[in-house]
Each structure stands twice: as structure tokens, then as C-alpha cells.
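Study the following:
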Amino acid sequence: MASTPMDIDDAPSAAATPSLNITRTLGANVPSTTTVSDLIASFRPNKLFQRDDLKEGKPQPYVLSIDFDDPGELCMTSESDDTIQIYNVKDGRHDKSLLSRKYGVKLAKFTHTSSSIIYASTQQNDAIRYLATHDNSFIRYFEGHEGAVTNLALHPGADNFISCSVDNTVRIWNIGTKQWIGKLFLNTPYLSAWDPSGNVFAVASAASGSILLYDYRSYEKGPFSVFDVAKARGPADSEAAFRGWTKLEFSNDGKFLLLGSRGDGHFLLDSFDGSLKAFLKKPGAGTRRLGAGETDGGNMESSGECCFAPDGRYVVSGAKSDLIVWDTLMTPGSDKVLEPAHVLEDKREAAVVAFNPRYNMLATADQDLTFWLPDPNA
């Protein structure tokens, strides 16, 4: 994967373009319109992408985030060696590599235009950067945070996004201007998410054990609802209710809110009253990655090891090995514990997980990126 420098970076040394050994294309023998419920148990690792563009002796980087563009045709990772990698999903091939050596990169996300992205810095300053990938030029810097950015959440239908930071602020931005258009002061507001309509956004504060919901049209008035995760935690231990939160996401039907945790399970909450629908119990050890905003332990954060499938019915989670799937239509036990519906076997750790919004495929990563597709013979 030959690297392409951004306009402010030093040019990389020449490197041979490696072979990815791709043998199958997306959707072979499986129509892309098949429902997730018909295929979820048949997902198998299908394509493995390894960074063999690295210099000899250089350690394999970690994948910090995975994102898909709106049409589902491009997959992007941000990695710990200050690179952004972009893959063509349909062709199953690596497309380009971008460097951000000066400022680092994490939490890279496509805007609603597939040729432009935003991402957070990891060094020198805490600005968010807006990049055009077709010519590797920076369009804008979003400056204002005075601490590391822990989350970026793009509005589902507009060119606005939310950023959270360890500086105890949440900022709302319009992609067309470098100045933030809204700011909230909160204690450890490390995660955020938009509901599918874009009219409501949620902010998760692990230190207070709560999730705050805001009306986007009047967020300056404060939250219209506060969910007490510590109270609604069910069988989870108290530590999981106050630390180690990794992901916040609404289901596509808006009924549920997923709160990922690096503890022994994830929280599935009713998005209207905050009650616990189920505690998604992990059958084994979780991943090594830290929760949003955490710095202890010597490991790295990720953009989250769990997510909803596009139909909102299934929750998929990574683990030390295997991929875990819960069916939210199943009835949890009397203690609110919901056991996995499927365990998809894989020897590799899945520390970052993302489901394609348009196709029946998903991506997982720790150090190597893996595409998962339904096996028509399963």
C-alpha cells in the first residue's frame, strides 16, 4: 500500500506496493438486499488486509477506528502509525494510504461526501481536521478544544457534527465554518450519538454514570432527559456503570440506545425512558482497548468494539477472540441478562467493529483489518 503524503507532511520513503491476495468480491452468490436476520449466523471472515507496506522491524500499528461512507462502498481506518487507510469494499482492495505524521490521527469519519473526511489529532494540538481525500488537501481546521478529543458524531442528514473532549466540553460544529456553533460544559462528556432523525443527540458521562438527551433545536436549554445508568445497570458491577465506556449508538429505529463497556457486558437501554432492556453478557474476556477518555493501562482507545446491525435488531461485539451477536428480540432472563444468540468463530481479537450501512458485510480490526461476509454454504 503505497503511501500518499498530505500537503503538510514530509514525503514518505519509497515502498513497494504489496499484494492483498484478494480472491473474492463483495456479495458473491449473496444478494445485497437479503435481510440481516437471514444471514447473521453465517458471517465468516472473508478478507484479511495486512499492512505489509511497513519498513522492516517497524511494529504493526493498531487500528483506532473504522468507518464506512454513506453508500457503503468505501471503508476507512485510522491507525496508530498516523495513517489513514481507505479500502474499496465492492472490489475488496486497498485504495489509498494517507499520512498525518505532524498531527497524528484518530476517530476518522467520512462526511456525507465520500471524498472528504474529518478526524481528531493525537499530537501537537487538539484540533479536528477536515480533509479532501481526492487531492489530499486540508479544507479547514476546527480549533477550540483544550484537551484530547474522545468522540466525533456526524449528524445523520446535515453537515454538522458533535465533538467530545477531556476538556469537559461538548462542541457542535457546522462543517462550513471553523468556529464552533454550540458548546456545552459537562463532566467527562466522552461519548455522543445522534438519534436517526437528527433531532435529538445524547451525551454519555461515565464519571456521573449518566446519559443526557438534548433537543438539537434547543440544546442550550439543557437536557430534556437524563438516564441514570448506575441505577439501571441491572446485573453489571458498579465499576462498569461508572467507567470503561466505549461506544454510544442509537438503533436505526430509534427505540434503543447501546452503551458499550469494556466490562463483562454492554447496556441495551430504552431510548425513551432509559430503562435497561437487557445487559448483553459477554461469554468471555473483552478486548484490551481502553474506554473513551481513559489513559491508564498502557493500551489504546478505539472507536468502539460494538455496534448495531443496520436493521437495529442485532448487536455485534468484538472480544479477545470470536465475534459475539445478540438478538434484541430475544427475551432476557429475569436478571435482565441476555445471552448471545450467535458466536462467530475467529482467532483474532476484534477491538474495533463497524457494520456496513448498505451491504451485508462488516469490518473488524485490532492490528489487521478483516472484512466479514455471509457464507452462502453455511
